[in-house]
Design brief:
Layout: H1 17-39, E1 49-54, H2 62-75, E2 80-84, E3 95-96, H3 103-106, H4 108-113, E4 119-121, H5 125-134, E5 139-143, E6 155-161, H6 181-186, E7 190-195, H7 204-209, E8 215-222, E9 231-236, H8 241-250, E10 254-260, H9 269-282, E11 285-289, H10 290-295, E12 304-307, E13 309-313, H11 316-326
Parallel strand pairs: 1-5, 1-6, 2-4, 2-5, 6-7, 7-8, 9-10, 9-11, 11-12
Antiparallel strand pairs: 3-4, 8-13
């Protein structure tokens, strides 16, 4: 289901009555996550499993980073397959995603990744890992699942939004945390600081948090020539909509208007007809992300420009060293 985080999750600690009232539930949630992680014996695949995870609910850029990571593994001579639970899709798997599938069946992110990589959808991560292994994978890159105890991870990477960090610092439902960040950090080999752009730097708070672990810097960059030379009305339903709008502006886009939907929003005619009318009235082109375009009904895709981009890293060699050590 599409999800928009409540506003109080982003308020400073101690400034929300709702967060204070929900805090006991957060403590119980964290305790249950830790209990499951420590009491369940995970399935261990015969090939390495790399987990790309985070400590918070919602988007932080995991899927673009998963694509980047799998492509780096390919450059190192490893046939990497992606494993995901297929959020928003009806299929439980395990199954390999193909161009015949739809976003409603397998989820928007798996369908997007499958344009470039072998992707497996499985609600049961262990069964999915076995299917990928049987399907020829030499290494598995798991999109999310850091808090899932069913599959052994040989290498875990903790992605952190360098801007919002951990919100109000409270565990769900009092805040955006899936578990305490320090607990997640103990199970990870490195922290990936997800920056807003190439000019940004990790804060002192994030540097202090990652002390003792490699801190790698990454950001999402639009492809050269991706932005049309025309007035634009941008829309998207991703974890951090403002990142997309800001990236367009940095690329020199003539952005007349912007509309944000909830992450994984299932677009309908009621959403898209007004957008098209507004674009026509403003003399603007409709633009959206790769992930959103996949969720558009085919009848409404014509005339919508897809702005694509890729993950970039400050120190690619540092990531390669982690992957080579895994081999």
């Amino acid at each position: 289901m599409p999800f928009k985080p409540p506003r109080f999750w982003s308020l400073p600690p101690g400034q929300s009555t709702a967060a204070k009232l929900l805090a006991p539930l957060g403590w119980l949630y964290h305790a249950e996550v830790q209990r499951r992680l420590h009491q369940r014996k995970p399935f261990k695949a015969d090939i390495p499993v790399i987990c790309v995870g985070n400590a918070t609910v919602g988007g932080v850029g995991k899927t673009p980073f998963v694509r980047h990571l799998a492509e780096r593994l390919g450059a190192l001579g490893q046939d990497a397959h992606v494993l995901t639970r297929g959020y928003g899709g009806s299929e439980t798997g395990p199954l390999r995603v193909s161009e015949q599938h739809t976003a409603s069946e397998v989820g928007d992110e798996p369908l997007m990744l499958a344009q470039d990589l072998p992707v497996w959808v499985s609600a049961d991560r262990a069964a999915g890992a076995q299917a990928a292994q049987d399907g020829g994978a030499e290494v598995i890159v798991m999109d999310d699942g850091l808090q899932n105890p069913s599959l052994h991870k040989d290498l875990s990477l903790l992605l952190v939004d360098a801007g919002s960090m951990f919100g109000n610092g409270a565990v769900f439902p009092a805040g955006p945390l899936r578990e305490r960040p320090e607990a997640a950090l103990k199970r990870c080999a490195a922290v990936i600081a997800m920056l807003s752009d190439e000019e940004a730097e990790p804060s002192d708070e994030l540097t202090h948090f990652a002390a003792g672990k490699p801190l790698l810097e990454a950001w999402f960059s639009l492809d050269p020539g991706a932005v049309p030379d025309a007035p634009m009305l941008a829309f998207c339903g991703i974890g951090r909509p403002q990142r997309f709008f800001d990236a367009l502006k940095r690329a020199g886009a003539d952005l007349i208007d912007q509309v944000a939907f909830a992450d994984h929003h299932p677009y309908t005619e009621d959403d898209l007809a007004p957008l098209r009318e507004d674009a026509d009235r403003l003399g603007a082109r409709l633009v959206t992300t790769e992930k959103d375009y996949i969720r558009l009904p085919e009848a409404y895709r014509d005339g919508v420009h897809v702005v694509r981009g890729r993950m970039k890293m400050r120190d690619e060699a540092a990531l390669d060293r982690l992957l080579q050590e895994l081999r």
